[in-house]
Amino acid sequence: xxxxxxxxxxxxxxxxxxxxxxxxxxxxxxxxxxxxxxxxxxxxxxxxxxxxxxxxxxxxxxxxxxxxxxxxxxxxxxxxxxxxxxxxxxxxxxxxxxxxxxxxxxxxxxxxxxxxxxxxxxxxxxxxxxxxxxxxxxxxxxxxxxxxxxxxxxxxxxxxxxxxxxxxxxxxxxxxxxxxxxxxxxxxxxxxxxxxxxxxxxxxxxxxxxxxxxxxxxxxxxxxxxxxxxxxxxxxxxxxxxxxxxxxxxxxxxxxxxxxxxxxxxxxxxxxxxxxxxxxxxxxxxxxxxxxxxxxxxxxxxxxxxxxxxxxxxxxxxxxxxxxxxxxxxxxxxxxxxxxxxxxxxxxxxxxxxxxxxxxxxxxxxxxxxxxxxxxxxxxxxxxxxxxxxxxxxxxxxxxxxxxxxxxxxxxxxxxxxxxxxxxxxx
Length: 427
Fold this sequence. Notes:
Layout: E1 4-5, H1 6-9, E2 13-15, E3 21-31, E4 40-48, E5 53-57, E6 61-65, E7 68-71, E8 75-77, E9 87-89, H2 90-94, E10 98-101, E11 107-117, E12 123-132, E13 146-150, E14 154-155, H3 159-164, H4 170-176, H5 181-190, H6 193-202, H7 205-213, H8 217-226, H9 229-238, H10 241-249, H11 253-262, H12 265-274, H13 282-285, E15 292-293, H14 299-306, E16 318-322, E17 333-338, H15 339-344, H16 368-378, E18 382-386, E19 392-397, H17 398-405, H18 410-413, E20 423-425
Parallel strand pairs: 2-7, 15-16
Antiparallel strand pairs: 1-11, 2-3, 3-4, 3-9, 4-5, 4-12, 6-7, 8-20, 10-11, 10-14, 11-12, 12-13, 16-17, 18-19
Helix pairs in contact: 5-7, 7-9, 9-11, 10-12, 16-17
């Protein structure tokens, strides 16, 4: 390909010369220049299956196709990617940047950047797709047309310009629409703080809540502190209760109290209950919002609940059957129905006919070793937490258990303990 736009590369799979999967493209790295010549594209930021992001020089890239990038035979340095002072992330920093046309001084917003090969086998950011910015507002105002211009015809994209100017986030958010929350979180960790804040300010609450759950605690606290307290409270309401409680537990008592007071009582009360338990117990790990039905519900109703696409897969593996009330803490806990058993039963049958009454429940004070043995012994993805009075308090899922068993900051280093500077052969 003789011209490749950065947005086309985002998320493309990367393969070795023999077709083995290496990872996915997450960004391009360009070296900015002092003159007006197009910046040289230094390489790609590739996210491996382990979530580690590494730098792959452009000289290692042998082919860029519409559906994949292929690398040459050789080694890939496994050191985690860190941006140098003279480098810019094309997707993370250049897209949505504000600039001016050299010819008319008109204000424009960068929508995309195209790289092209030159005779030296290098790639340069030769073209910019820009859209003129208009200060006029009103109904019926047409959106300005997109122009693809040489790099030299656009001003205001030096390193100091990109790090100092206010920047929109529309184009980057469009790219995020195709990504999982965990991948967005990894991308945001690589962005400069100012750019990260711009993205957070533009992201809707539900999406931001999903992303925040995938970030390490220190990054969660930093972003929460950036938000106005009213919005921070809204984000906490949108998060899974157990994740929100974990985040609140890391805050100073005064800040924790203010945020809880700003939340709706129906949302804050479950969090207050979770905060009474230690974070390394079943009570601290559990979510208070599993799927709960009464014994007179039908199999069809149970299946409808677990089909909810917003329900995590682990929580969808069990339906808990309780006497009213069905909000936690519930009435008397009857038992649970495994989703595979529900699939085998006639839809009109009552869910009570599929209840497993023999599966033991966890107590809220069960510690991590006990919870781990419980999940291993019964081959579960989700387990009930019941108090001494047979009230269902919530459910622990295997992913929440793993979060606490894995080393601190595992989200930043990936699932494998890869030493800095290690290299792998892509041949």
